[in-house]
Specification:
6-stranded mixed sheet, 8 helices, alpha/beta, about 300 residues, Rossmann fold, two-stranded antiparallel sheet, globular
Length: about 300
Amino acid sequence: MIHKTNLSNLPKYLLKLTKKLSNRLIYGLNRSIFKGSGIEFVDIREYVEGDDPRYIDWNVSARMNNLFVRNFQEEREIPIYLVIDLDSSLFFGTKSKLKIELLEELLAIFVNLSLSLSERIGAIMAHKNELAFFKPSKNFSEVYKILVFINNTINDFKNNKYKYLRANSNIERLLKIANQYIKRTSTIIIFSSFIDVKSYEALEKYLRSLKKVKNNEIYVLKLTDPAEIKIPPVGKINLVDPFSGKSRLVEITPKLAEKFEQEANKKITKISEICKKNNIPFINFFTTDNIEKKMLEFLKNKSQ
């Protein structure tokens, strides 16, 4: 992967579009959306209707024969981490864009949002056996290195497609690394195709662990192309496995297309259920989605 950081390499339309969209999203929500759930204890007070029952102090309540809650004050300066799984399936797209181009748009929106709100944002990326770390910052040139990195990767792919085959998803390993690297309360946004999950048990284990560390706030964003869910029964076609690089002639019959869709939806449901079980918001972004509408959905969930 290329590690240049020349900001002039970034597409101007991307920055203009996402900056404009970021401002509209902020205006629509009219509040800071990246405050996170990091909190510090202040005192104990009597329970009032509407208080979060999770904060009831049962020991004090039992002694006082009345309900009391622990009062917290929300911390500021909670960093945002973008945790990005760059597997080979991201370099695939059947409509207007590749999945990695969808990723680039989403990252540009988050970066512009964070800069507009004076939030610190960083990233952890994994591709094959390579890792890239971007320390959370408010500095324009430092933060935009995240976008430059992705944009250079896209340009490199267009010139050398075979280089990006055989990059298996290793989301479990990436989440394990995030657990080790992120030491303080953070908002963590995870991007992955989740196509090649090796162990759903390990995935849930690391998500749960990451969420429990110092009240981290976790969001899972899946990147999907419509053809990864539904393929037309078009007869014989030559398919290339992005993870192995091997090609195979396959006849897509109506029965096979139906089974393919069922299996694909089963995997999405499994990830969604893991997230729901652990109170982690999950959003599946398609390359054909209206990004503004979908981002507003994400941010509204975040601000609630």
